[in-house]
Specification:
Blueprint lengths: L5 E7 L3 E11 L2 E11 L3 E2 L2 E2 L2 H19 L6 E6 L5 E10 L10 H16 L5 E12 L2 E4 L9 E11 L1 H12 L4 E7 H9 L2 H6 L1 E6 L3 E8 L2 E9 L3 H10 L4 H11 L12 E6 L3 E6 H26 L9 E5 L8 H9 L3 E3 L18 H18 L4 H17 L1
Parallel strand pairs: 1-6, 6-11, 12-17, 17-18
Antiparallel strand pairs: 1-2, 2-3, 4-5, 7-10, 8-9, 8-10, 12-13, 13-14, 15-16
Helix pairs in contact: 1-3, 4-10, 6-7, 6-8, 8-9
The protein binds adenosine-5'-triphosphate and magnesium ion.
């Protein structure tokens, strides 16, 4: 990868669409050169409900990012995928290294066994495969191998996590980006993207659940031994807190949103029962609202949202993988005061709020849990490119990529 390759991440969220353009510095890092955000239209709880509106949103956010970055041509983009249709399950496969005893395992063999795990998974499930994530390689019964390339052996096995999506969702996403003249080079399940930048290597090793609660989705990912081992998406998010406030206090949604952000707190026990706040309703008249009552409304919904995540983890059986790393909350919901404490009570384990781990240029523009997904897409992009260059993508993929690039440059 050259110094001046750009990568572009686009997070199509329920409330906002965020574009981040970065220059790749080396195989481990990038520098942000532009960002752009636009209020999302045509997207609901991770799913496109109106393709034309989604395309307009993407173009609007991208134009803003390009304006900031200056003179960059964007065609390939890395995007996230979310929605309640996302599933994850295990698959495995074995291939023979048929070059005689003591043959050296090559990158092509690794690709072959990963492809075999993909084929094995596709026979049993209706969904479209988004990821085949190797968790463990086994060479001649020797387990726990992270990279078998250059080892000698006669049989190579892989245990992989398969992540699938509803094919219609994938098609609609591709169409929305196609219509914006963009090519989706990678589609990354949201929890994997957020985990990529929010979690430390130690957390991923030691067993941690990342829970990204945005406006309309709860994206859950469990990492253990360095890998994603489970992901699930539940509809639900912080906009339900806003609608509860709006309904509960009979104020417009926009005013409820402002009130939530300025005075919201999920721990009523720390609020003076007599404290009130004056709310400007639609800029027309004022209302006095009890901050304690506001906090009670927020607490109730925060407990419900977090309990949904806890139940999903309990049912999945993957809560036992959540060990030393505990729970890491990210997404806009995690900015609400006190939600980490509420989560600690529900999960009965340590909880922290996670931010993107980026500290380079323009970091102040993305230093928020609402940017975890988009920044994770960039981290994923850099890492994936590294894997591709080391051969996991295979020679055919690289030839196709080369042809596509030339073709794209001519037209
Ligand atoms: N400072 C804040 N305090 C409280 N809530 C906040 C704050 N900032 C954002 N939020 C809330 O977070 C939500 C948006 O979060 P985020 O940007 O992560 O969602 P999204 O990515 O658009 O949606 P999703 O991931 O669910 O598709 C909104 O409900 C918003 O009210
Ligand atoms: Mg989001």
């Amino acid at each position: 990868m050259s110094r001046y390759d750009n990568i572009v991440g686009i997070d199509l969220g329920t409330s906002k669409t965020c574009v981040a353009i970065a220059e790749v510095v080396d195989e481990h890092s990038f520098e942000l050169i532009g960002t752009g955000t636009s209020d999302s239209k045509g997207v609901n709880s991770g799913i496109i409900v109106n393709i034309d509106e989604a395309t307009d949103t993407i173009v609007d956010a991208l134009d803003k990012a390009i304006d900031m970055a200056g003179r960059v041509k964007v065609r390939d983009v890395i995007i996230n995928i979310s929605g309640k249709h996302i599933r994850s399950f295990d698959s495995n496969a074995t291939v023979n290294i048929a070059r005689g005893k003591g043959a050296i395992i090559t990158e092509a063999d690794v690709k072959r066994v990963i492809d075999a795990a993909r084929v094995n998974a596709s026979s049993g499930d209706e969904g479209e495969i988004i990821h085949v994530l190797p968790r463990n390689f086994i060479v001649d019964s020797e387990s726990g191998i992270q990279n078998p390339v250059n080892m000698s052996g006669s049989k190579l096995e892989v245990d992989a996590l398969i992540v699938t999506s509803n094919p219609i969702t994938v098609r609609n996403l591709r169409t929305a980006f196609d219509n914006a003249d963009l090519y989706v080079s990678d589609m990354v399940v949201s929890a994997l993207a957020s985990g990529e930048t929010v979690l430390s290597l130690a957390e991923k090793e030691q067993g941690t659940a990342i829970i990204d609660i945005g406006s309309g989705t709860i994206d859950i990912g469990v990492f253990s031994d360095g890998n994603l081992v489970y992901t699930r998406v539940i509809p639900g998010g912080a906009r339900y807190i806003t609608s509860d406030i709006s309904i509960g206090f009979k104020i417009p949604f926009e005013d409820a949103e402002k009130l939530k952000i300025t005075h919201g707190n999920a721990l009523p026990e720390f609020i003076d029962k007599n404290s009130t706040v004056k709310v400007d309703i639609s800029g027309v008249h004022e209302r006095e609202i009890s901050v304690y009552e506001l906090s009670k409304v927020i607490e109730a919904r925060a407990i419900e949202l977090l309990s949904l995540a806890k139940k999903a983890l309990d049912v999945s059986g993957y809560m036992r993988y959540v060990r030393n790393g505990g729970i890491v909350l990210t997404g806009g919901f995690s900015l609400l005061k006190g939600v980490d404490k509420v989560a600690e009570r529900i999960f009965e384990t340590g909880v922290r709020v996670g931010f993107p781990n980026y500290t380079g240029p323009l970091f102040e523009m993305v230093n928020s849990p609402i940017h975890s997904t988009v920044m994770g897409l960039l981290s994923y992009g850099v890492k994936n490119e590294r894997d591709r260059e080391s051969g996991y993508g295979g020679p055919l993929d690289r030839i196709l990529e080369f042809v596509r690039k030339i073709f794209g440059d001519i037209f």
